[in-house]
Design goal:
7% strand; 3 strands; three-stranded antiparallel sheet; mainly alpha
Length: 176
């Protein structure tokens, strides 16, 4: 249970109503009880296998491991096809709006289009960085120019954690 903001009142002998959220005596009675709201599931994990057929198709089409693409989607959007990041990235693979046209995505919230575009972009990053998975993932997260600037994973905690998370989930999704 979290904090609550009930409102209490008491009426003094002159008829003046005194309101507070922290009653100081037993003269106060509940005037308005706050109804707690469930917080929105901002990072709720959606159906993890609901897109496996599309992920498999995209992985095969673009020559990427199924487990890698599924891990990327897990970390990017937690399988939420309607995800929008603080920076404006859209959909399952969190495609930036400026890349939509380049990746042939008309509707970034269409799972098929988004996954196909995300797989294509990841393959482009793998090609650009000579198949170096760590660098390709860093480029997917921070942009290829940042990886080129540092000739390594950029020194941003978010990007470094991102690469590690994707690699961790890739191991989880690898077939035994």
């Amino acid at each position: 249970p979290g904090a609550r903001a009930d409102i209490f009142v008491y009426v003094d002998r002159h008829g003046v109503m005194h309101f507070t959220n922290t009653p100081t005596s037993d003269r106060y009675r509940v005037y308005l009880r706050e109804t707690p709201k469930r917080p929105p599931p901002s990072k709720a994990l959606h159906d993890q296998s609901g897109y496996d057929d599309v992920i498999l198709e995209a992985a095969q089409r673009h020559g990427i491991a199924f487990s890698l693409l599924k891990a990327l989607i897990h970390v990017e959007s937690y399988f939420n096809p309607k995800a929008v990041s603080k920076k404006g990235a859209l959909g399952l693979c969190q495609i930036m709006p400026q890349n939509l046209q380049f990746l042939n995505i008309n509707d970034p919230f269409d799972p098929w289009e988004n996954i196909m575009g995300g797989a294509r972009y990841l393959q482009l990053m793998l090609d650009r960085f000579g198949g170096e998975l760590h660098l390709a993932l860093a480029a997917y997260n921070a942009g290829p120019s940042m990886v080129e600037k540092y000739s390594a994973i950029p020194p941003f905690p978010e990007t470094q954690q991102y690469v590690q998370k994707v690699l961790k989930y890739q191991r989880v999704y690898k077939p035994s």
